[in-house]
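Morning run. Coffee first, then this:
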Amino acid sequence: MKSFTELILKIDSNRKTTAKIQALVDFFDEADDDDKLWTIALFTHRRPKRSVTTAKLREWATELAGIPLWLFEESYHIVGDLAETIAMLVPQTTEIPPIGLSEWIAKIIALKEESEENQKSKVQTYWQGMSRTERFVFNKILTGGFRIGVSRKILTKALAQTLDQEEAIIAHRLMGDWQPDNTTFKKLLIEDHQHDSDAKPYPFYLTYALDKELSEIGLEVEWLAERKWDGIRAQVIIRNQNIYIWSRGEELITDKFPELQALTDLIDDCVLDGELMAFKDGHPLSFHQLQTRIGRKTLSQKLLSEVPVILMAYDVLEYKGKDIRSTPLSARRKILENIIEKAHYFALRLSEAVPFTAWKELMREKSKSRALHCEGLMLKKKDSLYHVGRVKGDWWKWKVEPYTIDAVLTYAMSGHGRRANLYTDYTFGLWENNELVTFAKAYSGLTDQEILQVDQFVKNNSLQKFGPVRSVQPQMVFEIAFEGIAYSKRHKSGVAVRFPRIKRIRLDKKIEEANTLDDLKAMIE
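And here it is:
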């Protein structure tokens, strides 16, 4: 547990991705295979089920700390994290001999079968034999709240470096419903797996926002225009009658979209680039509806029926086993059209070209974007190749202006890293029946000077404390920008907005002049 705890501290104290990767590599180089496997499991959200209720943990920690329960609860209220509160209050009185991560997890799992008396005795003994940081990590695992800042991409890079493997192969092997009790580190990541090379994606071609006049990029006849669809950018690989779906963030998400599985029987070997979209009755659904399917461990037939997903394809990178990225876009489009026509499948659609002969016509088409549930237009040179990474000149994204609304600051939370002592994460409300109703959180958009200004306001105008969160006097108005909006049953306001960020502080406005929730709902088309 000591070496795993040291790993967590290194990861948690570093903002740099390279430092996090190196910490993981160092750990994997030294740890035994069982500890490696459980480390991977924890970082991919395969935590052991909770063995003890948090109510019991509170009582047992209070007893060891020698304080009344109300004082423990007050401390928990201030700290804001149960695992950390227990770690801070319980004293270390002994020292347990070194035990590896996998052994500790075995002990945690075994607690489930113990009597309450034995659970209490063992947990208290474990706590008293650990350092504060070890106790904190142990508690995180024990309570099922282990969520440390390591993305799957960082983990994949570290394992690829450790094992001298390609990241695409590692990412593919980490997918699926494996658990530490039904595999081993070697079976999962080292032994030969059939079809590893089949899963390998191509680097995505990324674009820049259009930063010049249309007349400056060339003649209209040289360009193809498409809608910029609002979904999840994805690469769909079909090889040897297997399908692999990769997000732009290089995550393998095949199991999230069963609608596309049938393509293995309808299409020859190829690699498609496109947008995964919620799509029903011939029309795109909102991105919020697509989000209802993201992160679900199981997809019910009801959800699949209510929110069907398609691939809106706009490019083909490989055809019949041949890399065609160096083929001009106009020729690739013809191949793509033939693929989609041959498949004739509801979940595979072509991103149609937007017809135009003059730039002014395209400007009118752009104005229709929101009504068509898209973010604007994509402009692509007809003779362009499929480049690697972000390349300027051949493809441009031309987005519509974001939605904006004036809202009141209601809560603030401290940041992380170098901003840990500043209030940098903000919650905003809109008026409804003379009350402010929370509708969005945002943490980007302010300059360093403005952050200091808001931080001072929060510290001088705090009303209540909730762990790291402060409620504040409703006095400051901000203009909030966002990309999308939809009704939502999960939010108190009844509305969800996409990519909210601060556009500016409205020092010229009184809070009475901020917008209402009805104003926000009126933006939903």
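Residues 205-399 form a domain with the D-amino Acid Aminotransferase; Chain A, domain 1 fold (CATH 3.30.470.30). Good start to the day.
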